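INTERNAL AUDIT FORM
Audit reference: QA-55
Scope: verify that the stored structure record matches its stored sequence.
Auditor: D.O.
Record contents follow.
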Amino acid sequence: MTSLLQNLIDGLGQGSIYALLALGVAVIFGVMHLLNFAHGELITVSGYAAVAAFGSNLSWWLVAPLIIVVSIVTSLVIERVAFSRVRGASEFTQLLTSFGIHIIVSAVLIMSVGASVKTFAEPPWIFDRIDVGPLSLEKFDLLVIAVTAVTLAATTWLLQRTTFGLSLRAAAADFDTARLMGVDSDRVIRGAFALSGALAGVAGIFWLMRAGNTDPSAGIDPMLKGVLAALIGGLGSLRGAVLGGLALGVAEVLLRSQLPSSVAVLTDAVVFGLIAFLFIFRPQGLITVQHAERV
């Protein structure tokens, strides 16, 4: 029982990062009906900003907010340079655009800073543990869970209690009707990308802390985790994105701990298999979204 509880807490720590990534994906999908495969590039660019900051002898206390700012700015630049040009195009065209962004960002980074992996120092406390009764909990996991809870609460307040949040939810429900009622579509879309960038930035802090390095393709893995978590929870559902991220993290940790050591390296394959079964029996994800059609 103690081992199971330990694994659940570890899984929630990992799943909290996935939840933040999935929430950023879900925000963009809700407004534009776009599955943004360029979401991981926010962490890639932020990673290189962190490398430059550490080269100037900045501490993690200063690098962490820098990562969030760079992620927001990168998200807004991507929207302005790429997605704003194909806003009225087909979903397939927008999807290809998101893939194109990944290729272009990777190519620019390879030409400008090289393809080699850039490393930086992890926080000295990242593997420290706190004993709580029979449990031995990583400070990192506890911090991730706490920050994620605060971030989700702030996001909920933003969406439920502000004019921008009302406009964003109206656009997600019915974009054309929202525009007819006076909602500024450009402002809402830019705000959605800024919010998505902020969520990716918070997730990026912990992702980069744990990884301790970055390279031109560093965003692929977090992008896949975020998209998968959003799909599991139900595309377009913010609650589903959080639930999907937590479920994915817990599933990975439990499988790594329960599978025999000889096959533990196949955890990702087993997770993908379980997700495939989920989509066979419940293709809409864990939470059904009522407004799934593009309008």
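Auditor finding: record pair retrieved intact. The two ends are 49 Å apart (CA to CA).
Action required: none
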